[in-house]
Write a structure and sequence with these properties.
disordered C terminus, 421 residues, 8 strands, two-stranded antiparallel sheet, 6-stranded parallel beta sheet, Rossmann fold, alpha/beta
Length: 421
C-alpha cells in the first residue's frame, strides 16, 4: 500500500509528459514544422556563423577583399587563410543542411568545431561572443542529429565540391606564401595553383622543388590531403547512387502498389495480421508497416514498409498522407498512441484506428485522439465471466466493449472504485 502514492505520482508524470508531447505535435502540425524544421533554422545559424567569422577576421568588406586576393591585387596575411577556409565552408554547408543531408550535417559539425577551437586558441577578433555562438550552433546540430538522415547525390556532390575547393585554396595560398622556399620561387597565384594541382594529383613533374623543411612538410600535407579528399569525395558521390540502385533492385522483389486511397496496418500482432488479411481478401489495397521484417512474410505477396512507426519519414514512405485509414495495432499502447500522433502530423484525411491492449492506458490513447479505438483483448475475460454467471450478452455490449468510447469514464468492476492511472 505504501507504493500506491508513488505509483500514482509516476502515472501522473507520464500523463503530463504525454500531454506535453501532444501539445508539441499540435504546434508542429499548426506551423507545418515537418516541412522546414530543423533544417532551415540550422542553415540560417550556419550561414550567420560563417559571415560573422569572415567579418571578424577578414573585415566588413570581406567579399571585396576575397575577390582582390583571388585576382592577386591584395596580398593576404597567412593568419587570414584558416578563417577564410572555415567561413567559406560554413556558407557552403548551410546549403547542404537545407537538404537534411547526413554528410552535410557531419561536415557542418566538423567546421563549427574547428571554428570554435580556432576562435578559442587562435586569438580571433570575435572573442568569446563568437566562441559562445559556435558552441550554441554545435549543440543545436547535435540535438537535431536524427533529422539529418538523407544521402542524396546532390548533397554529396556539394560536399565533394566544397572539400576539393577548400583543399585547392589551402594548397594554392600555402605554396604562394611559402614561395621563396621553393626552387624556382613561386611568385604568383597561377604558379601556386599549378604546383598545387601537380602535387595533389601525385604527377610531380619536378620543375618546382621545395628547399626548406617547412616547404617539404607542407608538400607532404598537400599529397596526403589530396589523396584523402579525392578518395572521400568520390565515395560520397558514388555511394548514394549505388545505394539507390540496390534499393531499386531489392524493391522489385516486393509487390508494387500505388499507395493512394489505401489502408495502412501498423504492427505484427494477431489483430494486425487478421485485419490485413481480411482487407486483402476484400480486394482493398493494404500496406503493412513493421518495425522489422519477420521471417514469415513473403515480399512477393505483401506491400511492406520497414521502419519506426513513430517516424514521420517512414509514415510518409508508407503513404499515410494519402491513405483511407491508418491502423496502429502493436502490443505497446504507447507506441500505438505515438504512431497516431505522427500520422496526424502528415495531415490528409485518413481515419485513425488505435488498438487498446490494457484498460489502464486509456488516457494515453485518448491523448492521441484517434477516430476509433478497438479493444478486443479486454473483451475475452468479461465475456467468459458473463457467460459463466448467466448474464445476458447483447450485441450492443459487445460493440461497446470492442470499440471503446473514450468520451466515457473508464469502466470498473461493480462495487469498486476506478483504478488510478
Amino acid at each position: 500500500m505504501a507504493d500506491a502514492p508513488r505509483e500514482t505520482e509516476i502515472a501522473l508524470l507520464k500523463l503530463n509528459a504525454e500531454q506535453l508531447r501532444t501539445l508539441w505535435h499540435g504546434v508542429r502540425r499548426a506551423l507545418r514544422m515537418d516541412l522546414w524544421f530543423p533544417q532551415i533554422p540550422l542553415a540560417v545559424l550556419m550561414w550567420l556563423g560563417g559571415v560573422w567569422l569572415l567579418k571578424a577576421d577578414v573585415g566588413r568588406g570581406w567579399q571585396h577583399d576575397i575577390t582582390r586576393i583571388l585576382d592577386g591585387s591584395l596580398r593576404m596575411p597567412p593568419r587570414m587563410l584558416p578563417p577564410i577556409l572555415i567561413g567559406s565552408g560554413m556558407l557552403t554547408m548551410a546549403l547542404g543542411l537545407l537538404w537534411r543531408s547526413r554528410i552535410a550535417w557531419f561536415m557542418a559539425m566538423l567546421l563549427v568545431l574547428t571554428a570554435a577551437i580556432s576562435t578559442r586558441f587562435g586569438g580571433h577578433a570575435g572573442g568569446y561572443a563568437l566562441l559562445a555562438y559556435f558552441l550554441l550552433v554545435l549543440a543545436a546540430l547535435l540535438f537535431a542529429y536524427r533529422h539529418f538522415d538523407r544521402a542524396s547525390v546532390a548533397a554529396s556532390t556539394l560536399f565533394a565540391l566544397t572539400s576539393v575547393a577548400m583543399l585547392i585554396m589551402y594548397a594554392t595560398f600555402g605554396s604562394y606564401y611559402l614561395g621563396a622556399q621553393y626552387k624556382p620561387a613561386i611568385t604568383d597565384l597561377v604558379t601556386a595553383l599549378y604546383y598545387s594541382m601537380v602535387t595533389m594529383s601525385t604527377v610531380g613533374y619536378g620543375d618546382i622543388v621545395p628547399l626548406t623543411a617547412e616547404a617539404k612538410l607542407f608538400t607532404v600535407s598537400i599529397i596526403v590531403l589530396g589523396v584523402a579528399v579525392f578518395a572521400t569525395s568520390l565515395t560520397a558521390v558514388i555511394a548514394p547512387m549505388v545505394s539507390h540502385s540496390l534499393q531499386r533492385i531489392v524493391s522489385r522483389k516486393g509487390r508494387h502498389m500505388k499507395r493512394e486511397k489505401h489502408f495502412v496496418v501498423i504492427g505484427n500482432t494477431a489483430l494486425a495480421i487478421n485485419t490485413w488479411r481480411e482487407l486483402a481478401r476484400r480486394g482493398r489495397p493494404v500496406t503493412r508497416l513493421l518495425r522489422k521484417q519477420p521471417d514469415d512474410i513473403d515480399l512477393d505477396e505483401v506491400d511492406v514498409v520497414i521502419g519506426d512507426p513513430g517516424n514521420t519519414d517512414v509514415l510518409r514512405q508508407a503513404g499515410v498522407g494519402r491513405a483511407q485509414a491508418v491502423m496502429a495495432m502493436m502490443d505497446d499502447d504507447s507506441e500505438n498512441a505515438f504512431a497516431i500522433l505522427a500520422a496526424r502530423e502528415l495531415g490528409g484525411g485518413a481515419r485513425t484506428v488505435a488498438a487498446l491492449n490494457d484498460g489502464r492506458h486509456r488516457n494515453r490513447i485518448k491523448l492521441a485522439q484517434p477516430d476509433v479505438v478497438i479493444a478486443p483483448q479486454l473483451l475475452g475475460g468479461e465475456l467468459l465471466a458473463m457467460l459463466l454467471t448467466g448474464e445476458e450478452v447483447t450485441s450492443d455490449f459487445v460493440m461497446k466493449s470492442v470499440f471503446q468510447d473514450l468520451s466515457a469514464p473508464a469502466p470498473s468492476p461493480a462495487g469498486t472504485e476506478p483504478a488510478a492511472g
